[in-house]
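Ticket reopened. Same input as before:
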Amino acid sequence: MPTLFVPAPFRKSVEDLSRLEVGAGSVSALLREVDTRYPGFNAQLHGPDGSVKKYIRIFVNGKDIKALDGMETALDTRDEVFIVSAMAGG
Amino acid sequence: MQTKALSEFDRERYSRQLRIEGFGEEGQLRLKGATVLVSRVGGVGGTAAMNLVRAGVGRLILAHGGKVVPEYLNRWQLITPDDLGRPCAQVWAEKLGQIDADVEIVTVDEYINGENVADLVSRADLVVDGAPLFEERYLMNDEAMRQGKPLCMGAMFGMEGYASTFIPGESACLRCVFPEKPEYWTDMKVFPAIGPGPAIVGTTIAMEAIKVLTGFGQPLKNILWFFDLESNTTRYLEIERVKDCPACGASRSH
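Engineering reply: fixed in the latest deploy. New output:
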């Protein structure tokens, strides 16, 4: 089952878990499934126009989904979806 | 970059790193001839500055406004309660001077802003950015890209951190990766922090600066190196230059 890494700013909405196993065949399906389990999760990632917020990047196996098939990037059982939110702490 | 000669004391002081394959005396001399601008001397920038001085950088420009307050004590290397109330940049210059009095240290008792950024970047060979506000980071990024200066960037939030090196004309920059700041990052009180997180980030970007300045090793070009100390996760994430990026895109001349 694909795994999702959840960055710290969004963990409160998934019971403080850093990692979730989610059965899904694409990035968009995975995020929908997480939102079903934890309503409100997706709303944190997307802006009013429905696109991913510009301070969030999503990677599959270390590659930015923008360089793959975007939200429709296909997922296999051993794939890892990694979300990173911009930070500036020093 | 100006190149200075190594003294006998230098050869002894740096004897361990002179033995590193690919670094050697040539790398040491390049480092000694280099000027690095450090934006903020907090948990990230201060750690980077300390490591650069120990490694033998020739000249540092430390830009940091304000005075030392108690909440800095949990993560700022070298700072002690005796320093409370003193100007941050000057305290750091004093401490770094104790490590190596031969390193030239210029203090700027201001944060990076629209008035000072162009001049400060123009005086450096490379920029190290550890500022806690996106406004300062975007200003620094844009100016470094405009002037064709490499920028080693590191940041953290809680137990997470990341680092990357932005080379104008060669790699992604901050705006390529994160064109906008998070709406929740409203001030510098936003981020939780405990010492080891910013220390790892600061140490990493110091090594990045050393690699870029000396030509030794492989800098984190087009890589966002990410870690989460809570879940013991680390990843090398591939990032790409955006062709029409307003800061570093192909339309910009370098």
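The interface with chain B takes residues 5, 7-9, 18-19, 53-55, 57, 59, 62-64, 66-67, 82, 84-90 of chain A (CB under 8 Å). The radius of gyration of chain A is 12 Å. Please confirm and we'll close it.
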